[in-house]
Amino acid sequence: MYFRGRKTVNRPEIEIKRLNESYLEGVTALYNEPAVCRQVLQMPYQSIDVWRKRMTTENERHLQLVALHNDEVIGNIGLEQFSRIRRSHAGTLGMAVAETWQGKGVGSMLMGAALDVADNWMNLRRLELTVYTDNEAAIRLYRKFSFETEGQLRAYAVRDGTFVDALSMARVRPN
C-alpha cells in the first residue's frame, strides 16, 4: 500500500519490507544492474559485504526498506535522520528501482512507505535528496511527493568517465 495524496493504492503483488539478511543478495544485485548503478552514487561490482555492513549498523535513525515481487528484490529505499542536534529535524533519502520495474509504481510505493515513517514516526520536517539532472523519471517522482529543486550541483559526480550535474531537492512539511 502507498499513498498518493490522501488516496491509498494497493498493489498486492508487491510487498514493502524492512531490509534483512535474506534480502542482501537481491539488494546487491539491484545496485549492480548497469542501468541502476549509473543513476546512483554506488560503485559498480559491489559485494554483498557492503550491504551487510550497512544493514548491521543498528541505528533507529536509519531505515532501509525493500520492494519485493515474489520474494525478489525489485527496489530499495534508505531513509536516514541526521544525527547532529541542530539538524535532527531533517533527513536524507536514497532509492533505486530495478530497470524492468521502473515506471510501474514501485518507486511510489517505496517513497510512500518512507514518507509515512519520516512524517508519522520520526517527525521529520525536512527531507533532502540528490538526483542526476538527466534522471527525468526520478525527478518527476520526487516532485509528485512535493520535493522541490533547491539548486544544481555542477560536476557533482563522475559517471561513465565524465562529470555530471545533480539537483539538490528537498521536501519541507509545513508546521
> Cα-atom Rg, whole angstroms?
16 Å
Highest-level CATH class? Alpha Beta
Fill in the CATH topology.
Answer: Aminopeptidase
| Overall 3D form | globular
Structural class: alpha+beta
Say how many strands there are: 9
What are the segments in which pLDDT stays under 50 over at least 5 consecutive residues? 1-9
Order of helices and strands: EEEHHHEEEHEHEE
Could you name the CATH homologous superfamily? Answer: Gcn5-related N-acetyltransferase (GNAT)
Q: Give the termini separation.
A: 26 Å
Count of structural domains: 1
Task: Annotate the secondary structure layout.
Layout: E1 2-4, E2 7-9, E3 14-18, H1 24-32, H2 34-37, H3 48-56, E4 62-69, E5 72-81, E6 90-97, H4 106-120, E7 126-132, H5 136-144, E8 148-159, E9 162-172
Parallel strand pairs: 6-7
Antiparallel strand pairs: 1-2, 3-4, 4-5, 5-6, 7-9, 8-9
Helix pairs in contact: 1-3
